[in-house]
Design a protein that fits this description.
The protein is mainly alpha-helical and 396 residues long. The chain contains 16 helices and three strands. The longest helix has 50 residues.
Length: 396
């Protein structure tokens, strides 16, 4: 590389001595003065090229060291150190197909009830006596929509304590919630994989400086970080959501797909979108399995995370760093495989993904459209009935 740089820096007039022509003495003088500068330029170009080669070599050595250190703790894609233990107790995993189908059936039942209610409202319209009609309409309204006139009451007792009811509930906090979330996350993950995690692994809960990101995994330091969740009104929900995010981030380290393709100091940023989707799918699947262990259904839901929201964001065409599509892929694997361990292997085994996963996602997209269509119809019908009843209670 250095010889090329020197050759490219040579003036074209030096191609052949036979081509030289006499030039005025002033020009010769200028040329002789320029010679040292030209020589310095060649030296700079040479040393720049040599330095680039040295840096590139050092970079490759450093990258090799990063990958070697990572694999020493976590294994490789072909031979992972951690996988799902056969002894882990896993409750059944709810898939998007199951949830959407259940919701559609529930919406159809609700639509029948709304149509029947609409017919009753029509019957009221035929009653000639105004007061009788108003009384029956009000009764029907309150039976189906709640009190016709709601007066918001503020409890003075909650104002006595800063923070209201939530502050008072601190005195009766569930003892489990007193444990550090890092401790609970480590315990759940180690039970899932059936062995102790690497000593180098560190769990951290704190502020994540990247907007819109709830956590991240640092493969250079084997650190799993989660932002302390506070988006839910329930303290228990926030607690277990944070535990779940920690499990998700460990899932990145266990799979380590982007590290296997390391080509910069920030492999996640340098990775292709497809690489990120594959790793997010593995992390989502891992978190789902971490959350499938607790006996309490509510705890399982919050530790596993709301994958339906992510899946529908992907179906809506939302472009992110791969999490939404990864969630759709992980869910498709759990849909195809009744054994959750087989589903996890379908995502994490090196090689091409099963095309059937995309077929499941396409079918789920159709379910999503059906679900939204019937819910929109029901909402319109609901609002129309409510408006008709109000007109009977308070005729203009």
């Amino acid at each position: 590389m250095s010889s090329i740089s020197v050759r490219n820096s040579l003036p074209s007039a030096a191609a052949s001595p036979g081509d030289r022509t006499e030039v005025p003495s002033e020009s010769n003088e200028n040329a002789s003065q320029a010679a040292p500068a030209s020589h310095r330029g060649r030296k700079i170009a040479t040393w720049t090229a040599v330095s680039a080669v040295a840096l590139a070599g050092a970079g490759r050595v450093a990258e090799h060291a990063v990958v070697s250190n990572f694999e020493a703790s976590w294994g490789t894609l072909e031979s992972p150190r951690f996988t799902i233990s056969e002894t882990a107790t896993l409750h059944p995993i709810s898939t998007y197909r199951e949830r959407a189908t259940e919701l559609i059936e529930s919406a159809r039942t609700w639509k029948k009830e709304l149509l029947a209610l609409d017919a009753k409202v029509g019957d009221l319209s035929s009653i000639s006596d105004l007061e009788t009609r108003r009384g029956l309409a009000r009764t029907l309204y309150e039976k189906n929509f709640g009190p016709y006139e709601t007066v918001a009451a503020i409890s003075n007792s909650e104002e006595e304590v800063p923070g209201g009811a939530l502050a008072k509930s601190e005195t009766t906090k569930d003892p489990i919630l007193q444990r550090p979330q890092q401790e609970v996350a480590r315990e759940l993950v180690e039970t899932l994989v059936g062995q102790k995690l690497p000593e180098v692994l560190s769990f951290e809960v704190g502020d994540v400086p990247i907007e819109g990101i709830g956590g991240f995994a640092n493969s250079l330091t084997s650190t799993a970080t989660a932002e302390a969740c506070n988006i839910f009104p329930s303290e228990e929900a926030n607690y277990y959501e944070t535990v779940g995010v920690l499990g998700h981030e460990v899932g990145h380290l266990v799979f380590g797909f982007s590290e296997s393709k390391l080509d910069s100091w920030t492999p996640w940023n340098a990775a292709t979108y497809g690489t990120r989707v594959r790793e997010e799918a593995a992390a989502v699947a891992f978190r789902t399995l971490v959350g499938a262990q607790p006996d309490d259904p509510q705890t399982r839901f919050f530790v596993s995370g709301d994958t339906s929201r992510l899946i529908e964001e992907f179906m809506d065409g939302k472009l992110d760093y791969g999490l939404a599509e990864g969630a759709a892929l992980a869910d498709a694997a759990f849909t195809l495989h009744s054994d959750p361990r087989a589903a996890y292997k379908a995502i994490t085994t090196p090689g091409e993904l099963d095309p059937a996963l995309r077929t499941v996602i396409a079918a789920n997209r159709e379910l999503c459209l059906q679900q939204r269509a019937i819910l929109a119809e029901n909402q319109q019908l609901h609002e129309r009935i409510q408006k008709r009843l109000k007109s009977l209670i308070e005729p203009q």
